[in-house]
Amino acid sequence: MSGGVDSSTVAAMLRAEGAEVIGLTLQLWNQNRLAGKPGVPEAPKAGRCCSLDDVYDARRVAEKLDIPYYVVNQEERFEADVVRPFVSEYLQGRTPIPCSLCNNHLKFDQLLLTARQIGADRIATGHYARNEYDPARGRWILKRPADLAKDQTWFLGGLTQEQLSRTLFPLGHLQKPEVREIARQSHLALADKPDSQEICFIPGGDYKQFIANYLEEQGEPLPDSSGELVTAGGEVLGKHKGVYNFTYGQRKGLGVTSPNPLYVIQIDAASHRVTLGEEPELNSSFFRVKDLNFITIPALTGAIRVEAKIRHRHEPAWATMQPDGNGCAVVTFDEPQRAVTPGQCAVFYDGDEVVAGGWIDSVSINQVNHAALATS
Amino acid sequence: MRRIYMDANATTPLLPEVMEAMRPYWMEHFGNASSIHQQGQRARTAVDQARETIAEFFGCHDAEVVFNSGGTEGDNNALFGLLHPGDHLITTSIEHSAVLAAADRLAKFGVETTRIDPGPDGLIDPMDILRAIRPETRLISVMLANNETGVIQPVEEIGKIAAQTGVFFHIDAVQGAGKVQIDVNRIGCHVLSISGHKMHAPKGVGAMYVRRGTPLEPIFVGGSHERRRRAGTENVPSIIGLGKAAELAMESLATGKIAKLARLRDRLEQGILDLVPGTGVNGANSDGTVAPRAANTSNIWFDQLEGEALVIALDLKGVAVSGGSACHSGATEPSHVLMAMGLDKTRARASLRFSLLKTATEEDIDYVLNVVPTAVERLRELAPAMAGTAG
Fold first, then answer.
1. Which candidate from A32, A73, A116 shows the least CB-CB separation from B331?
2. In the prediction, which pLDDT does B1 show?
3. Does the pLDDT at position B324 exceed 50?
4. Candidate from A32, A50, A113 with C-beta closest to B382
5. For the CA atoms of A245, A249, A251, A253, what is the dihedral angle to 10 degrees?
6. Cβ partners under 8 Å of residue A173, min gap 6
7. Is the Cβ of B382 closer than 8 Å to some Cβ of chain A?
8. Residue A99 known to be catalytic
């Protein structure tokens, strides 16, 4: 229970069904930790995950529903499995997605374990997704929700069969306005609480400042990843202060002027070189995906047709997915897609069903040929 | 479901006699103890009677008793009321946060603090205190019994050191009160704090012993209550409750009820050690002996599990215990006391505190000994990955 309307409504729905419900909130990050450092307010704002206000809201819901409620401290694991990788990914020129890491390592792993340890059979979350067992295939299937505007399956592509079998997504068949209506009917005071948007552990949303503050707190120097801004043809356009300041497709804050708008089209962590190009150069046809988790199928044995989604707001695009022989896969889009970004999740759909999920490892830009990517 | 409360070091319920003693003072005898009239005098009489009982409880004069709001206020007052910029404070790393956070606050105003670590058995070595004394040392603050382990500190020896070196001595007796005989003259302390709700009186009331002539400045100023040592209208019903609770506590100590409680605690402890593999008493020496402890407290480590999950699992089975200290959100953090004793984080996290009420029964122990092994087994079964990581 995050203290938001979705998980609170789930608790109310299950309670109304007569289920035996125990409320758990994960304490993941101490919002006071970096308080007072540059760009961080002395007192944390409301509406953050793990903020005292949110824990208070979650507790009030549990009290109202008359269910036992506990806050579970997972700050260390969150730091090791989410915050650390988040920082190091940026320092390596990638654009991480901490919510998926949190789902894989905290919410559906540690939380599920804690839930089972304290005697619960399953966990229920406020994610917008559906899951069901398909006896024909003998597998648990993850499906897009009824409310496609709230679809969160992209964040859930790492769920294993065991995790899917022990998870309930009671909001999967509802539209968000219906959820708020249920919250209202259940007399939950937070029925109209706004949805959270930003990364929960970065108050203010300035991730660059967060990386600097975090490393300072850890007594670690910010590694020098400054380097050149270049064109795809190798022409030097200027200098930059560190690869972590960039993400694929970024247009603002590049520090160069040009007659046509320029975008980040590639970040090379080894040489610290950030390649800029015009909009058409931003498109990629191929990428490699690693750490694959298969859901509808047990493994990838040959080329399959999928719709690939490569970032949260991306409309899935038709592609062919092919094993590369090393446990990864190469994905070839029918139509080149804009700003395919290493570090982000890729989730592969067959209609409503999630076939597999993985992490975008490397991306080809334009001329680089498919074979080179597959063997690199 | 049967519920067994084994978290007495967090708080205790009122005893029925305490409730009865307080009853007339909410509505019938509601007077302000500072008023001239009969209603006021009635309240004043009751407060004075309670003061007399507390003086007996401490082994001091009535005039040396100051009523306040509880342990945190007493601890804060001892530090804030005696220390000035340039002074040096000696305390321990196993104190309650009411002392440690007050010392942190004073650091901003130029008061330096030395924190003495306990040995692996949880005991503070008085010689460490002596060695830490400097010319600027003005106060030593040490607890009587530790809240996490129950270990009783050698306060009389520390009192002698304070006397010999001319340093003020404060005792946080919040966890000791009612479990250990208190005699302020034998201890040789200048200030001693207790809290009502740890000894079957209400929450929000406490008392301090302040030795005559101790220049303890008040932290609350206003009226002339408590001989100008603590302003604010007396919390009459709660003070009466505290008096009654102290009377009952002295009775329990005198009649051997507390010694009997120690036997119950020992049975619980030995039972868990026998029934659950991979367990031990925190602070136990290699031969299994432990430092002298408050009669009701046992702190046990469980290999290969998260204490937090065990606390929740036991709660859902009707057994209320605690593990570590609650952080701002209500989640658990590893106990700073166990860490100071040298436990690593994993073992500190895998530790539970059982603290018995003095009303505990043999049946309570039976029930807990029935529930704990099953709960531990389930936790360990589900988290085989943790095997071998603890210790």
1. A73
2. 85
3. yes
4. A113
5. 0
6. A130, A145, A146
7. yes
8. no
SS3 A87: helix
Label residues B121-140 b or e (16+ Cβ within 10 Å = b). bbbbebebbbebbeeebbbb
Instruction: Give the domain CATH number at B145.
Output: 3.40.640.10
Which positions in chain A have a beta carbon within 8 angstroms of at least one beta carbon in chain B?
Answer: 22, 25, 27, 30, 32, 50, 52, 55, 59, 68, 70-73, 75, 113-114, 116-119
Arch. (CATH architecture) of A5-185: 3-Layer(aba) Sandwich (3.40)
- Tokens representing B112? 């330096």
Smallest CA–CA distance, residue B372 to chain A, in Å, is 12
pLDDT surpassing 80 at residue A367: no
Q: Which residue of B has its CA nearest to A28?
A: B331
Q: Tell me what pLDDT residue B389 has.
A: 39
Number of domains in chain B: 2
Closest CA–CA distance from residue B106 to any residue of chain A (Å):
20
The pLDDT-based confidence of A371 (bands split at 50, 70, 90) is very low
Contact A114 B309 (CB under 8 A): yes
Q: Which of B225, B252, B279 is the last residue of a domain?
A: B252
Q: Give the ipTM.
A: 0.87
A283-375, which class in CATH?
A: mainly beta
Residue B310: inside a domain: yes
B391 in any annotated domain? no
| DSSP element (H, E) containing B336 | helix B336-340
Q: Are residues B271 and B217 in the same domain?
A: no
Cross-chain Cβ contact A114/B312 below 8 Å = yes
Q: pLDDT digit string (tens) for B55-107?
A: 999 999 999 999 999 999 999 999 999 999 999 999 999 999 999 999 999 99
Q: Both ends of chain B: CA-CA distance in Å?
A: 34
Please tell me the pTM assigned to this model: 0.90
Q: Are residues B305 and B232 in the same domain?
A: no
- Measured in residues, chain A has a length of 376
- Tell me what the pLDDT averaged over chain A comes to: 91
Q: Are residues B243 and B270 in the same domain?
A: no
Q: Please name the residues between 295 and 354 in chain B that touch chain A, using a CB distance below 8 Å.
A: 306, 308-309, 312-313, 315-317, 327-333
Domain holding B319, by residue range, is: 4-12+256-386
**CB atoms < 10 A from the CB of B331, how many?**
22
